[in-house]
Specification:
The complex is a heterodimer.
Chain A (H helix, E strand, L loop, with lengths): L22 E2 L2 H10 L14 H9 L4 H7 L9 E9 L8 E16 L3 E14 L5 E12 L6
Chain B lengths: L7 E7 L4 H10 L10 H6 L10 H15 L4 E9 L9 E11 L2 E10 L3 E11 L1
Antiparallel strand pairs in B: 1-3, 2-5, 3-4, 4-5
The chains are: A alpha+beta, B alpha+beta.
Chain lengths: 152, 129
């Protein structure tokens, strides 16, 4: 059965993901995070760059479950990371506070031999310094949402 | 330090992916998905018999490899693709090579490989030196 035989994915492109939370990278958490991946914290005050993902996920305007719900997908059905892209303008710094803006770019229904019918969610988040609103990074994440209820 | 296109980057090795680290990352990510915390849930979902590493930890391993290969440099951009799960107890190796050099920008490709199962993540990055 081709993907055209199924109803289209929910029209969620453009949904804002601007956050209201402030995310501050704490020195002790950065140290614990670095240790958990097998490295020491940087000596120059920069945070581990993986905080691009953590800060944007934690401080975006929806929880993971909420983002799935927007896509009419139950988080219990197991969203999967497809890809993650990041462009930094500045390094993330320990002690700095940030806020998030962003939006859903697309939700596209596809059919895969391995997963069956699935929706591919692409969303973009930007991290801004709280102090002067400078945007220091932009990340595009792609999640795969398997649509078990549409399985043949 | 000088770099050449084709140079391989020193691997970053995780001898045993830590289930304890997954518990820490559930807090860091504010995402208590039980597939990272409870092996019984993993089994019930038919996803294996060990807890599954959070995807961003795998990206962090690859970032560690890049940062160690280019001391003092910064990652300008990076794209990672998630091809398969990494499980608690896996031995994982991040490795890469230089694909292009443009003045102070070095382009790299990289993978994260798990012993016995091959490549589970792959991607590209640009490093500012």
């Amino acid at each position: 059965m081709s993907v055209e035989a199924f109803p289209p994915a929910p029209d969620v492109a453009g949904t804002p993901l601007d956050g209201t939370k402030i995310f501050t990278i704490k020195a002790e958490e950065n140290a614990a995070l670095c240790a958990s991946t097998g490295v020491a914290p940087a000596g120059d005050g920069s945070a581990h760059p993986i905080y691009y993902y953590i800060a944007t996920q934690v401080a975006m305007g929806k929880t993971v479950a909420g983002l799935c719900e927007t896509c009419e997908f139950d988080v219990e059905d197991g969203p999967m990371m497809g890809s993650s892209g990041i462009k930094f303008s500045e390094p993330l710094m320990v002690g700095e506070s940030y806020k998030v803006t962003g939006e859903i770019l697309s939700l596209v229904r596809k059919q895969s031999r391995k997963l069956g019918v699935m929706d591919v969610l692409t969303y973009r988040l930007r991290l801004h310094k709280l102090a002067d609103e400078t945007c220091i990074l932009e990340t595009d994440n792609v999640w795969v949402l398997p649509r078990k209820e549409l399985a043949a | 330090m000088s770099y050449l296109v084709g140079d391989t980057l020193p691997p970053f090795v995780i001898d045993s992916v830590s289930a304890e680290a997954m518990k820490q990352w559930a807090v860091f990510l504010a995402d208590p998905n039980p597939i990272h915390l409870d092996v019984d849930v993993v089994k019930a979902k038919g996803l294996g018999d060990r807890v599954i590493n959070q995807g961003p930890i795998n990206v962090a391993y690859m970032m560690n490899m890049l940062m160690a290969a280019f001391p003092g440099a910064t990652i300008e951009s990076m794209d990672s693709r998630f091809l398969d799960n990494v499980y608690g107890g896996d031995k994982a190796v991040a490795s890469g090579s230089i694909t292009a050099i443009d003045v102070n920008r070095i382009s790299c490709s990289f993978t994260l490989d798990v012993e016995g199962r091959g490549t589970v993540n792959s991607g590209t990055a640009t490093i500012l030196i």
